[in-house]
Amino acid sequence: MKVLIHDLDRAYDDRLAPKCDRMIAANGKYAPCQGCFGCWTKHPAECFMKDTLQQICRVIGQADELVIVTRNLYGEYSPAIKNVLDRSIGTSTPFSTYRGKQMHHTLRYGKHALWKVIVYGESTEAEKNTFRYRAERNAVNDGFERSEVVFVSDLSGLEALV
């Protein structure tokens, strides 16, 4: 299953929907993570907050391919995308294991194929390096076999990249 998370205007929804199995618009119409860890322990992979991200752990957890379209914000995800990713902590468990000689949380849903980030807006070389590193670490931590980061100056060819 291909899951797309984006922080774009609603006008992009119709253009991008045919390119994925599930689309999450990071539009800010949801609560930020409260840090209660209930999605880890009390009700695994389900947030207690009854909004559009209540099942986000299950959606991301079942993705073979996760594509994130985000505005560059000093080499990091936009706040709206970061909120969605924060709410998906329940894709793993509170238990730890070694993966690649590093300690990580045990995956609740197993391995995935690709963590892809499409970054739009101007980016310095330092910001690009930060993004590449962030995507690589996110991929390892969430059980994705590989990561890819694509930088675009405009969104005219976005559909081909997704």
Say which CATH homologous superfamily is assigned.
Answer: Flavodoxin domain
Total domain modules: 1
- Continuous helix count: 5
- The residue ranges in which pLDDT falls below 50 over 5 or more consecutive positions are none
Q: State the secondary-structure class.
A: alpha/beta
Q: What is CATH's topology name? A: Rossmann fold
Protein topology:
Layout (H helix, E strand, L loop, with lengths): L1 E5 L6 H4 L5 E4 L30 H6 L3 E7 L7 H8 L5 E8 L2 E6 L4 E9 L4 H17 L2 E9 L5 H4 L1
Explain how this protein is built.
With 162 residues, the chain is an alpha/beta fold. A hairpin with a 2-residue loop joins strand 4 and strand 5. The mean pLDDT is 94. The strands form 2 sheets. A 5-stranded parallel beta sheet has the order 2-1-3-6-7. A two-stranded antiparallel sheet has the order 4-5. The chain has one domain: 3-Layer(aba) Sandwich (Rossmann fold), CATH 3.40.50. The two termini are 13 Å apart. The chain is built from 5 helices and 7 strands.
What is the structure about, briefly put?
The protein is built from 5 helices and 7 strands; from the N terminus they run E-H-E-H-E-H-E-E-E-H-E-H.
Q: Which descriptors apply to this entry?
A:
Rossmann fold, 162 residues, two-stranded antiparallel ribbon, five-stranded parallel beta sheet, 5 helices, alpha/beta, single chain
